[in-house]
Amino acid sequence: MFDTSPPNLPKAPGVGYKPQHYGDILADPGAVGWLEVHAENYMGDGGRPLAQLRALAERFAISVHGVGLSIGGEDPLDRAHLARLKHLVDWLHPASFSEHLAWSSHGGTYFNDLLPLPYTDDTLARVADHISEVQDVLGRRMLLENPATYLDFDETTLAETDFLASLVQRTGCGLLLDVNNVYVACTNRGESPEAYIDAFPVEAVGEIHLGGHDAQEDDLGAPLLIDHHGAEVVDPVWALYARTLARTGPMPTLIEWDNDVPAWPVLEAEASRANTLLAVARS
Amino acid sequence: MNAFPPALLDPMAAIPPGLSDARGGPATRRFAVYRNNVVVSLTEAMATGFPVILKLVGEDFFRAMAGVFVRAHPPRSPVLAHYGTDFPGFLESFEPVAHLPYLADVARLELALRAAYHAADAAPVASDALAHPRLMEARLRLAPATRIVASPYPIHAIWRANTEAGAPPAKGGAETVLVTRPDWDPWPRSITPASARFILALLAGRPFGAALEAAGEDIDLAATLTLLLDTKSITAIEVPA
Asked: Across the interface, which of A45, A105, A218 has its CB nearest the CB of B78?
């Protein structure tokens, strides 16, 4: 069995760590109370990345966020990659570990993107097995993140919120609720983001993500939002976040900004804005 | 699902069946988002990993060439720190850069620098550690970051001219480069072929005396050892029992 306790992240804002902010974060983290790193960036044998992470872990709770495990894939999990992940988690003892409801590898090729899967009884069983394997190997409970998706599968029979709730029930995993992904995927599907939040199994949520997206149009001129983590969080997503907090109560909340990374004060200001809404949720 | 993965890397492949925009509309532009994400993100990884190659051929050409490379040689592992080991071989056979024969070895140097950046940490020996009574039979362990790249082209001069402000333009012939990592930043440095033979013998685990023999008479041993000590590259001196 594995440790089923909730993640130990503070119910405060965090940011996705970028090496260019190392000095700024140590000098004055402002509203930022914890940091998230992508697991795959810390799988070298040594050097500056691991040295910086070790130094940051002395000051901040760290969330390790995997982007390459391909939990939603058709293939068996990559055992070598799972072993690398275990090595990192055993070394760092992060406050939380999370991954995605998506696939990124197939037939031995790694695509470096979070790709979508149909929601059926078959995929539910397979993803549940993968989550259980991850939790058994790591010896801890993981959080699974809802994806930003751009299309749907004709074979899908289950709503995403029901799919996630079933995974929680079958595996005991927690959920990482990415509010920007909800806004992006629901808009792309022509559905209500508010209804999605209202249907989400909030009792399993252990962390929230916020990030920026790009707005385009599809072949028929319908809105096509693209999750790119390269801009500020837009107002409708902040409103959806406030609605989410009303259901979950205060939650560790991450600002993700991975592309066109801004100067530290811009990122800290986003964390500060999240903190204002967290303060309301605490009261 | 079967048609989905291969269609990501093949721009000529049809959009896989069974996909829609959830209102029954076509998924053409929606699938294109994933296709674009895959190739653009891998191209970006290549641009990050080979900044000197990018500078040598120009940004637009590099991105177009990397697009060809990533489709032909997609990653086999989610750890992109090691992605691109096939790139030197690709450059050797990619017709549009046939007039730039030094590119492959410059790419090998960039791979060596990246590998050194992520190599395991190791504490160096004290600066007087070589004053050892049985040095000739000892094995010198070198830091895991230590690499040697040899080329018939002046790859170190080319690397400097494209990374250091005010560095002289690259000219000359063959160069052998020692890559070390004194602290956190990999440091390439041109060395003589004799020094390279000595260091390669040490890396192969041969005793000091045998490495010296492999190096040949024209090695400047004092300079070579000073370089290894100054770059914190000697991590242990092991004498057989």
From this structure: A105
